[in-house]
Amino acid sequence: MDLWTAPLAGGPLDALVDVPGSKSLTNRYLVLAALAEAPGRLRGALRSRDTLLMAAALTSLGARIDDDGGDWVVTPGPVAGGADVDCGLAGTVMRFLPAVAALADGPVRFDGDDAARTRPMGPVVAALRTLGVRVDEHGRVGHLPFTVHGRGSVGGGQVDVDASESSQFVSGLLLAAARFERGLTLRHTGRTLPSLPHIEMTVALLREAGVVVDDSRPAIWQVSPGPITGRDVRVEPDLSNAAPFLCAALVAGGTVRVPGWPTSTTQPGGLLPGILERMGGSTRLDGDVLSATGTGRIHGVDLDLHAAGEVAPTIAALATLADSPTRLRGIAHLRGHETDRLAALAAEITRLGGQAEQTADGLVITPRPLSAGTWHTYEDHRMATAGALIGLRVPGVEVEDVATTAKTLPGFVGLWDGMLAGSAVPV
Ligand SMILES: O=C(O)C1=C[C@@H](OP(=O)(O)O)[C@@H](O)[C@H](O)C1
Ligand SMILES: C=C(OP(=O)(O)O)C(=O)O
């Protein structure tokens, strides 16, 4: 397996980092555009493994997606059966497309990477069956691979879903629900609900596309049947992918700026400025440029990250370099992400000489002097960027398979090197 020696920061940073488009927004816009009544255009769409898999899957399901000077132009078509959907390791593909496939005029088979076959899918399968859709499972119950037998239409109605393992179970059903004959009323029945901002993102994008959504009751979403408008949209930068760069300013000192930062957003990365301030950084928004400034001194925090689990690996890496312990809570669902992220973080931090223990719903990280070693990444893009962050301060951190960052950020190494090269340039 390839090892990449994470570069050390030579001194305080002074860099502007242009972060590509959001995975979550790109893949939602793609699904909605493919189900719309007229063509749509995505500007600033992310091109990464997860979004290319989504585009390929929607194409095989009958949409046409053309590149027009860097924009994606999506021409919807009738949802076609007979497709084989490769989900890779993308939660958005495996959780968003089964409800789309239910609208197809024939069977659609879903599978993905070996690691994808361990990610929870049971609530998606159960919900489709409740809605009268036949799903044949081919492996372990509640997991990929399976076949959705579309019959050209879905009646819709009411469904209960336990989304405590992933908000994507809710988002996936809501995204297709306006195309169900009676729409959908979805009630979440589990005790916890992770990543609420991602569900709010789904609701916001549906409404922007003209769909009526009632979310006035807690943990119940009602989508009325109706057309989805084909639109011309611009994708915000991926704020979760901005996280390691902004955190770099706290590790190395200096300032990192990210342009295109939205004034309001449903991305969970919108919570980052507040988190970085609690950990010893300062942030400011000048126009659309978010700056994070650090001194190299980082403080431990007690943080509930259930709304923004996506940034937990990055925050955990930062916490290893702090001046006091950190407790991360509310993130039991990270055990079903690209890998069991709680186990992976605890193992890799410990391997470098640090101290990290798993709790029932998170991690406790006690800073210790860290030393050189291999940082395993478990095919997880955010494990790779977490290793890079620690390597800014700890010499000899060898990040395994840094190419796994291509899941959401193919240019990661170039951007990271550019950030460090820009560190001497006065702005
Ligand atoms: O809907 C989305 O785009 C996402 C929802 C979240 O999933 P979970 O609720 O499974 O954490 C998040 O972690 C993932 O990266 C993207
Ligand atoms: C959990 C993540 O991805 P996915 O969309 O595959 O669930 C992530 O990007 O942190």
Task: Quickly describe the structure.
The protein has helices spanning 23-34, 49-60, 91-101, 122-130, 168-177, 196-208, 239-252, 272-278, 312-319, 341-351, 381-391, 412-421, and strands spanning 3-5, 13-16, 40-43, 64-68, 71-75, 84-86, 107-111, 134-137, 146-149, 157-161, 184-188, 213-214, 220-223, 232-234, 254-258, 282-286, 289-294, 302-304, 326-329, 355-359, 362-366, 373-375, 397-400. It has 427 residues and is of the alpha/beta class.
Explain this structure.
- This protein is of the alpha/beta class and 427 residues long.
- It folds into two domains: 3-20 and 238-424, Alpha-beta prism (UDP-n-acetylglucosamine1-carboxyvinyl-transferase, Chain), CATH 3.65.10; 23-224, Alpha-beta prism (UDP-n-acetylglucosamine1-carboxyvinyl-transferase, Chain), CATH 3.65.10.10.
- Helix content is 30%, strand content 22%.
- It has twelve helices and 23 strands.
- Strands 2-15-17-16 form a four-stranded mixed β-sheet.
- Strand 22, helix 11 (381-391) and strand 23 (397-400) form a beta-alpha-beta unit.
- Helix 1 (23-34) runs parallel beside helix 2 and helix 7 runs parallel beside helix 11 (381-391).
- It starts with a strand and ends in a 6-residue tail after the last helix.
- 55% of the residues are buried.
- Mean pLDDT is 97; it is low at 423-427.
- Phosphoenolpyruvate binds at residues 90-92, 310, 337-338, 382, 408.
- Residues 24, 91-92, 166-168, 171, 194-195, 198, 309-310, 333 line the site of shikimate-3-phosphate (S3P).
Defining key terms:
disordered C terminus, 4-stranded mixed β-sheet, globular, UDP-n-acetylglucosamine1-carboxyvinyl-transferase, Chain, binds shikimate-3-phosphate, 12 helices, 427 residues
